[in-house]
Amino acid sequence: METALAASITNLNSSPSVIKRHHLYPCYTSINSQKSPKYNCRYKNSVSFLTSCSTKPDTNKDNVTDPSSIDDPNLSSSIQKLPVPTSTQALSSVNSLFSRGLVFDLGQKNAWDSAEVGSPVVRRFLSDEEERWYMWYHGNSGKNPGSDHIGLAVSSNGIHWERGEGAVQSSVDVGLVMNCSKDWWAFDTRGIRPGEVVVMSSSKIRANSAVYWLYYTGFSSEEAEVSDALLKFKLENPERLLTCFGENNENGGIGKIYKSLPGLAMSQDGRHWARIEGEHHSGALFDVGPDGDWDSLFIASPQVVFHKSGDLRMYYHSFDLKTGHFAVGMARSRDGMRWVKLGRIIGGGGSGCFNELGAVNAQVVKNKKDGTYVMAYEGVAADGKRSIGLAVSTDGLKDWKIQDSPVLKCSEEDGWDDKGVGSPCLVEMDGEKDEWKLYYRGIGKAGQIGIGMAVSSGSDITSFRRCQGFHL
Question: Which stretches does the entry tag as region Disordered (predicted)?
Fold first, then answer.
């Protein structure tokens, strides 16, 4: 048995695109049986980012899980300390770009993220010695404009970010950390974008420390045909920025609706990821709804909140053909792997509202001070303009109170983000500063694309202001 398992691991390193799915489960079991398992142990002699491996964890018929959130200080201390990148890759800095909130620009020429960045997932880790910030995000080089990848940048303050131009080469490096799958049957062969990173321990995952759980959107090449007569605008999935690829670039997938589904990957360092095969035949966690359901076209931007042991909630968006609006729905799970849909929770706003055509890219966090659930989302106006809105719920399930006005709008004319803002990511600050930071993707009319940051006025999260400068 050990010889067969070793052969499977060798095959994964040499030609992952031809490994059969039934080979992967015993491979994972072998890793679990090691004394100090590392999810990246099988990649020691190959490229350090995952291209196609899928793994299936141990399952428990009682469906019992015992995850703990990163707020647990014991888990926080188990996360790797903020690394100093050591690879020979050139690193770019954005120190000169802090004007009006821009903290993360496009990568340097020929870098993996030189044409597009977005979907920021920002996490802040505190210890007795230091403050550590990680940002996972999607990027695109333009060489293959229809294919997004996931990368990691690091910071000591959430403002100055270090990034890599290519794939990570070690467990202390930054740059490209996850690529599209090469398996023909997989749901994520065309592109991937991060939705959420949760740090948990679980009785189902035998590891010597807490594990990063990455929930992400995977895009396939399967297209949905929708009559333009049913739509008030040109629907895309994923949404493509015309400034990146040109209005007539068919290779970029502009104007097309590709099927997307939610996926899960795990890591012990935030860099080397192993895909966890879900119950759907494509490896996704679950499928779109049947014809006629609000989420029958695609599932996008899965974002997961740990409520308590045995209760995880996923928020995601789709497009409802019946109403012609985007909507946010949710699913619930006991173990973070098998999910039950609960339906739509937020749809389109009233006529003339900033969210008239619905909500996308929702992010939900639990307010540490009052226990309420705060949802930041990207509102879609009738003219297609994007703003960031806010909704609050006492239990995170129902009765979402939607704020009438956006908390962050496009900047004034000629600003770097004067065309649209979206993909929000809220970070509640601990310690002396009683405030929230809002990271977001911004798009400018002049072709500017980047990730910005705005700050609340103290604990008031009803409005955010772009930072004009930083004092470090």
Answer: 55-77
Q: Is residue 300 part of a domain?
A: yes
Instruction: Per residue of the chain (472 residues), give pLDDT as tens.
Output: 333 323 322 232 333 332 233 333 322 222 222 222 333 322 222 223 333 333 444 333 333 343 433 333 333 444 444 444 433 333 344 444 446 889 999 999 889 999 999 999 999 988 777 889 999 999 999 787 778 999 999 999 999 999 999 999 988 899 999 999 999 999 999 999 999 999 987 665 565 677 999 999 999 999 987 876 667 677 888 987 644 444 334 444 557 899 999 999 999 999 999 999 999 999 999 999 999 999 999 999 999 999 988 999 999 999 999 999 999 999 999 999 999 999 999 999 999 999 999 999 999 999 988 899 999 999 999 988 999 999 999 999 999 999 999 999 998 877 889 999 999 999 999 766 779 999 999 998 777 899 999 999 888 888 899 976 544 3
Distance CA 318, CA 327 (A): 6
Tell me whether residue 471 is in a domain: no
Amino acid at 254: I
Whole-model pTM?
0.81
Q: Which domain holds residue 227?
A: 2-466
Domain presence at residue 472 = no
Query: How are beta strands 401-402 and 386-393 bridged, if at all?
Result: antiparallel
Tell me which DSSP letter residue 202 carries. Answer: B
Q: How far apart are the first and last CA of the chain?
A: 56
Q: Which residue has the tokens 């990848």?
A: 149
What is the number of structural domains in the chain?
A: 1
